[in-house]
Amino acid sequence: MANKMIRVAAASVLTATLAASLAACSSGGGSTEPSASSSASPSGTAPASGAASGSVATLADWGQTIKSKYDGTEINLAFASHPSTDSFQKMTKEFEDLTGIRVKWEVMEEGYLKNKQLLDFTGRTGTYDVLMVDGFWMSEYGAKKVVEPLDKFLEDKTLTPDWFDYEDIVPAYRNGISKYEGKTYGIPTAGETRFIAYRKDLFEKYGKQPPKTMDEFLELAKFFNGKEKDLYGVSMRAQRGTHAASGLLSLVYNFGGGFIDQKTGKATMTDPKTVQAMQFYVDLLKNAPKDVSSYTHEEALSAFTTGKAAMWLDATALANRILDPASSQVADKVGFVPTPEGPAGRASALAGWNMSISSLSKKQEAAWAFIVYMNSKEKAKEYVQGGGVPVRTSVYQDSELAAANISYPVQLEALNDANVLVEQGISWIPPSPKLGQILDRVGYYVSAAMFDQMTVQEAAEKAQKEVEDITG
Q1: Please, what sign has the CA dihedral across residues 314, 138, 273, 412?
Q2: What is the pLDDT of residues 307-332, one digit of tens each?
Q3: Cβ of 263: how many Cβ atoms within 10 Å?
């Protein structure tokens, strides 16, 4: 959402599944919001109308208005350790000076973050105001009412000025990782899709073009595998369990398959299209390094950046590391293309992180002010230059930023492919509160097929039964 989305470089229980995850949390007490001009209920679940009594036309005007109302208020944050968090922390002092709101950060590893957020909710402690929420968790958080619906905030121009520009957020992120049952529960802060990086020098040397279709992808992987000493055709994540399931998710929708029917919730592991995608994934990985079955996104990236693979398919959030000469031996030899088209057409991964408001927070408007400032179009370039992962169209189209990261145009193209699924009403992240269990068991049987412990068809049948048991 991608360390999943945007796990720019950290693995994690669920979002490691995406490439990009980390964890962050923040706790602490603090003053409550002033109640004189607030229409919020005692639980703090409703925003005040006309929260800003002054002008909000510019960021400076907005800051003065917010300060007049919330000066001295302290908000507590539970965030993942992530490049986006690092960038937000760099921007915090300016926010505090502008608004008078004090920010108390708690940052931790992602797997611990979710547990802490849920414990805070189930214990009704209400320690946190702003939560960093993985797109993988949004269905669960929305269903359990861990987080507050945000549409009421977005629709109030006094709370969300025009310069925030919600519509500038990439449609795939806006509609694909932050909603549950039609309601908005998060503002995307860092995201990722997946695409292919390929060795331009090798492709030029052998007169090859980068793949546009899945058939071409497999053909090229076979061609380059062993073509030169210690060279393999492709590198991907494939470690037993969630990583193998995540790798399969990179391809399955392009074949028209999926893990569950998103309308009925029934398992679809034995759907012929899902089986075809699983077979393709297993066949593709026969052209990967011999130890690919142990690869998370980190090992897959390392194999490519050390020159061991002609192609790599994984998270866009990792592009910076591929293009960094300090960490990549192929930084000046790389090109990018979107995930290839499959028998069912174009599709691409979609994952990432959101900022959400805890449903237990009694300081929701101050929390929203933090979200508006940090995620506004006004501050987007500063955020990315500070190491944040982009989610806005304007950032991808910024000439200065695009010159610094040549993958930006292809990333935006891949995100358009990801939006194909969104427009079809399909979530790339299978919407189930029991997603972690589903990924683990699907990945287990995919790995078994990779090791020739069973056929792909047998693996699909066993995965079908387990997913049925999990989903009830």
Answers
A1: negative
A2: 999 999 999 989 999 999 999 999 99
A3: 8
